[in-house]
């Protein structure tokens, strides 16, 4: 009987060891040991790839890969990401790290983490002109010609809940030449916010007016 009882206890100890829940501290330490590959997310106590958008795990992509696409990736990058975190996520940015070209890992003050991608990887692909189908390589900043359009695109994503990234063609030469943009699907209560933030980003005063048939017109 005594030998049988000892055998059962030994078996339970082995089983318990095999199925023990990993210690959070150990997982965090292991994650932080490889900062070039992984990041520890305090809010969820999870170790995930630095670029969760490239993960094969759908749950990781859904949880940490932001649907927000960044247009202003140069000197205005932190301002845009900070405003997005504040207005859309209800938190603040604590750190931004470029994990690869135009892919930015963002840590937030509530212990969260997300990966924000550029709307286009401009550093590798250049700027696309819809009229002549040519590419113009740009290393680090938005060309002056497109500054207002890119600013409106970022501001619209942040303030307009109806914006889906489809209503503004940032390379529309007619819009740029006429210096006006009409968005018929905008949430009218946010027109002023869009105009103000886009003005701040672009350094150009953008005025707005609500159209009688709906929508908001921006002029600069």
Taken from the alpha-carbon principal axes, the silhouette is elongated
Q: Please give the radius of gyration in angstroms.
A: 24 Å
State the order of secondary-structure elements, H for helix, E for strand: HHEEHEHEEEHEEHHEHEE
Helix count from the secondary structure assignment: 8
Strand content: 15-25%
- Name the structural class: alpha+beta
Average pLDDT score: 84
Q: How far apart are the first and last residues' alpha carbons, in Å? A: 90 Å
Please mark out the parts with pLDDT under 50 across 5 or more consecutive residues, or reply none: 1-19, 129-135
* Main sheet overview: 4 strands, mixed
SS elements, strand count: 11
Helix content: 25-40%
Major sheet strand order: 3-6-5-4
Topology:
Elements: H1 2-18, H2 24-32, E1 38-41, E2 46-49, H3 58-64, E3 65-70, H4 77-89, E4 93-100, E5 103-108, E6 113-118, H5 122-125, E7 127-129, E8 134-136, H6 147-159, H7 173-178, E9 180-183, H8 191-202, E10 207-210, E11 216-219
Parallel strand pairs: 3-6
Antiparallel strand pairs: 1-2, 4-5, 5-6, 7-8, 9-11, 10-11
Helix pairs in contact: 4-6, 6-8
Describe the protein in words.
It contains 8 helices and 11 strands. The protein has helices at 2-18, 24-32, 58-64, 77-89, 122-125, 147-159, 173-178, 191-202; strands at 38-41, 46-49, 65-70, 93-100, 103-108, 113-118, 127-129, 134-136, 180-183, 207-210, 216-219. With 220 residues, the chain is of the alpha+beta class. 26% of the residues are buried. Helix 4 packs parallel to helix 6 (147-159). The strands form 4 sheets. A 4-stranded mixed beta sheet has the order 3-6-5-4. Strands 9-11-10 form a 3-stranded antiparallel beta sheet. The longest helix is centred in the first third of the chain and has 17 residues, at 2-18.
